Amino acid sequence: MNNTMSQRLQMLREGAPLIHAITNPISINQCANAVLALGARPIMAEHPEEVCQITRTAAALLLNLGNITEVRMQSMAIAARTAGKEGIPFTLDAVGVACSDLRRTYVHQLMEKVPPTVLKGNYAEIQALACPSYTASGVDGDRQLSLATVAAAAEELSQRYGAVILASGETDLVCDGRQRMLIRNGTPQLGSVTGTGCMLGALCSCFLAVCPPLDAAVSACVMLGVAGERAATDRGSGTFQQNLMDQLSTLKGETIQVYERTEEYHFESHGYHTLFGD
Predict the structure, then answer these.
(1) How many CB atoms lie within 10 A of CB 71?
(2) Are the beta carbons of 182 and 265 closer than 8 angstroms?
(3) pTM
(4) CA distances from 127 to 105, 107, 157, 168, 185 (A)
(5) Hey, how many other C-beta atoms are within 10 angstroms of the C-beta on 264?
(6) What are the DSSP calls for 234-273, one per residue?
């Protein structure tokens, strides 16, 4: 990475970049607070007549497909076009593409016109975008998918769209077509409250405002994973959620460095289509 987590957090807290997020009402509060916890400023505008103007003023953009509507689909397309034209980095969180043809088709059409800086999804969502025949139930990850399978899918998508791919799971995978990083931080309790996956996308957009895409995606995974580990509790999901926000807002780079568990991932890729025949 080209600078340290301490430097990135310092840049975020001193620069307070504006992060424009078009996300869903289920997790909008958690996403806004996650952005604030890192020292950035959130704005959640989704009216089609204002998203172009607001996106132009942002340092980075988040597009999240959770609980999509016609209005959000229209607004996300406008915001993506604006970001592409203005050179603003953005994260596309492909929520639900494994269980919805509407979402899968929409994401592919959007990426063909304006590839995201970072494409984020859980293992099932990344697999679904690379493999047309793959489907899953709901928006949860698929524990039956192996890391090697998802890595091959991520390679395919990264090469096709020129984007960094962030595949979240028990072990997070970040891939840019040349380098593949594994992030082994986290806790199962992150799945006990809603919105933590969406928060990861928000954190990624924050880091996109201050560092290159691969570093941004890895930093987001490490930040949320370490915060989750330190927030873990036997007192229940409510206490965990509060602890998680406390950790995100107070974690220092030196502490993160102690807990961080990342490694480069090497596997022999033979091409996704050869492996899976899709």
Answers:
(1) 12
(2) yes
(3) 0.93
(4) 14, 13, 9, 11, 22
(5) 8
(6) SS-HHHHHHHHHHHHHH--HHHHHHH--EEE-------HH
CB 252 within 8 A of CB 6: yes
pLDDT in tens, 65-93: 998 999 999 999 999 999 999 999 999 99
Contact criterion met (CB below 8 Å) for 111 and 92? yes
Contact 8, 219 (CB under 8 A): yes
* Helix %, strand %, coil % of the chain (to 5): 50, 15, 35
Listed residue (189, 195, 193, 156) closest to 170, CA to CA: 189
Residue type present at position 19? I
Q: Give the pLDDT confidence of 161-174 residue by residue, as tens digits.
A: 999 999 999 999 99
The DSSP secondary-structure symbol of 99 reads T
137-146's contacts with Cβ under 8 Å and 24+ in sequence apart are 137/99, 138/99, 139/66, 139/95, 139/96, 139/98, 139/99, 141/168, 141/169, 142/98, 143/170, 145/169
**Residue for token pair 């950035």:** 40
